[in-house]
Amino acid sequence: MHRAFDICIPYNNLEFADIHRRGFFVMAEVHPFRGLRYDLACVGNLSAVIAPPYDVIDATLQQKLYDLSPYNFVRLILNKELPTDTPTENRYSRSARLLKEWLADGVIAQDSARSLYVYHQDFEVEGRRYTRKGVMGRVRLEKFGEGKIYPHEETLSGPKADRLKLFHATNMNLSQIFGLYPDEAGEVQAKLDAAVGRSLPIQATDHLGVVSKLWAVTDQHVISEVASLLSAKPVFIADGHHRYETALRYRDEKAATGDLKGDDAPANFVLMMLVSMSDPGLAILPTHRLISGLDALTSAQAAAILGQHFEIEQVGSGPEAMRETWERIEMDDSQELLGFGTVADSVWQTARFRSPDLMTQLAGEHSDDWRSLGVAILQRVVLEKLLPEAGMREPKCQYVHLLKEVDDAVVAKSCQLVALVAPATMDHVESIAGNLEKMPPKSTYFYPKLLTGLVVHSLRAH
C-alpha cells in the first residue's frame, strides 16, 4: 500500500509562519482561529438556526428551515431563488446582505480568542448508537498532489461555480470540509477529550435527530500539542471536495489581484472538521443502487445475465430475504460479494464476482485496489457491460443508504432491480486516495453530514 507520508521536523514552540519561512513546510498545517458564532441570547434555541449542508437540502427541507427561524443558516448557504433575480440581485447577494445585517446586529459575533472547536455528533443508524468525535480548525490550502491533503472523489463544474459565487458574495467559509486522518493510537482525540473534560458544550438537534455538541478550546498549550500531532499526518477529504476546490480557486484569485497579504492571510486557509480514521463513531454507510430503465426482470433472468461472471446463490423472497442478503454481505467482509433483488418477483440472491481478469480488461487504467471495489465491479461489469449486452442499454440509478429505503422502493415498485453493495472501507480510502487516484462515484457515505451554522471562518483580513 502506498502512503504519502513525509518526514516532518517537530516544531515545538515555533510559530507556523517561522516553520514556513525556514523551509520545513511539508505538513498538513492546522491553525486555531477566531470563529464567528450565533449569539444564543439573540437567536434562542440553536436547533432552530442550524442546517445541514446545502447539497442535501431539497425545496421541502429548505422551506422547513426557513420556517424554523428568521435566522436559520439556510438563508446564508442556500437562499431561495426568486423569479425577479438578476445578475446583481440574487440568492448570493441576499445571503451577503443578511450576513452583514446579522453581524451588525450581533446575531453572529466573533469569538475573542483563537480557538480550535471540538465537535461531537451523537446519532443512531440501523439500530446502533454512535458518537463521532472531531475538531474544527482552519487548514492551510494546498493543491492536490502537491502536499498532504488528498481527494477521493471526482468533482463537477456546476457545484463549484455555485459555491464560488457564494464565496465572492460573503468572503466566508460558511461550512466546513470533512477531513480524515490516520491515528490508530488516538493521541489527538485523547488531548481533545482531556481539554473539554466535563465542561458543558453548546448543543443542537437537527431534523434527523442527530445531536451536535461544540466546545471552543482556547488553551494555547493544548492547541499547540494538537496542531503538532496533526502536522505529521496526511488528510483525506471525506466530504466537501467541491468546496475545497472552490476555496483553492478563491485563494488563487486573491493572489492574482494582489489581495493575498502574506502567508497567514485567511484566504490561504479553509475551515475543516478533522476526524480520526480510527474513531469508533466513524460510520460509513453503503450506497445501494435502485436500478430502473430496464425491462421487468425475474430472478431467473437476472441470474442468467449475472451468471456469466458471478457465482449466484438464491437467498429467498421478501423483506426478510433482503435483510439476510445484506447480512451475508456484511459477514463476508469483502468487496466481491454483491446482492441483487428483482422487484418483479421480490427474490433476493447473492452474486460473488469471479472474473478479476475482466475488471483488468474493463478498467485497466486503474489500480488493483480500485478494480477490487464492489462499487467499481457493479458499475463496470453489471451496469456498463452485462445489462447493456442483455439489451438493457440505459440503466438508471437512484442511491439509498438504509434497508428501509430499499424496502420502500421495492414495495412502491419504483425500480426493476436493486443492487446491495458494501461501502469502501477506510483502508480503501487511504490506499486509493493516497495514490492520487479518485474512487468511483458513491463509494462512501459518511453519516451523518456535518451541520452548518455552528462556526464560521472569515476570509477577510483581520
Task: Briefly characterize the structure.
With 462 residues, the chain is of the alpha+beta class. 34% of the residues lie in helices and 23% in strands.
Topology summary:
Elements lengths: L15 H6 L8 E2 L4 E3 L1 H4 L15 H10 L5 H4 L13 H15 L2 E3 L5 E10 L2 E13 L8 E2 L6 H14 L1 E2 L3 E5 L5 H10 L5 E4 L5 E7 L2 H12 L3 E5 L1 H16 L12 E8 L6 E3 L2 E5 L6 H8 L3 E8 L1 H14 L4 E6 L4 E7 L2 H7 L5 H4 L2 H16 L6 E5 L2 H10 L4 E4 L5 H9 L10 E3 L9 E2 L4
Parallel strand pairs: 6-11, 8-12
Antiparallel strand pairs: 1-5, 2-3, 4-5, 4-10, 5-12, 7-21, 8-11, 9-10, 13-20, 14-18, 14-19, 15-17, 16-17, 16-19
Give a verbal description of the structure.
The protein is of the alpha+beta class. It has two domains: 16-282 and 447-458, no CATH class; 287-422, no CATH class. The chain contains 16 helices and 21 strands. It has helices spanning 16-21, 40-43, 59-68, 74-77, 91-105, 157-170, 187-196, 220-231, 241-256, 299-306, 319-332, 356-362, 368-371, 374-389, 403-412, 426-434, and strands spanning 30-31, 36-38, 108-110, 116-125, 128-140, 149-150, 172-173, 177-181, 202-205, 211-217, 235-239, 269-276, 283-285, 288-292, 310-317, 337-342, 347-353, 396-400, 417-420, 445-447, 457-458. The strands form five sheets. Strands 1, 4, 5, 6, 8, 9, 10, 11 and 12 form a nine-stranded mixed β-sheet that branches. The relative contact order is 0.17. Mean pLDDT is 90; it is low at 1-26.
Q: How many strands in all?
A: 21
* Percent helix: 25-40%
Tell me, what's the shape? globular
How many angstroms separate the termini? Answer: 43 Å
Largest sheet: 9 strands, mixed
Number of helices: 16
User: Structural class, judged by helices and strands?
Assistant: alpha+beta
Q: Mean pLDDT, as a whole number?
A: 90
Quaternary structure of the protein: single chain
Low-pLDDT sequence parts: 1-26
Write down the domain tally: 2
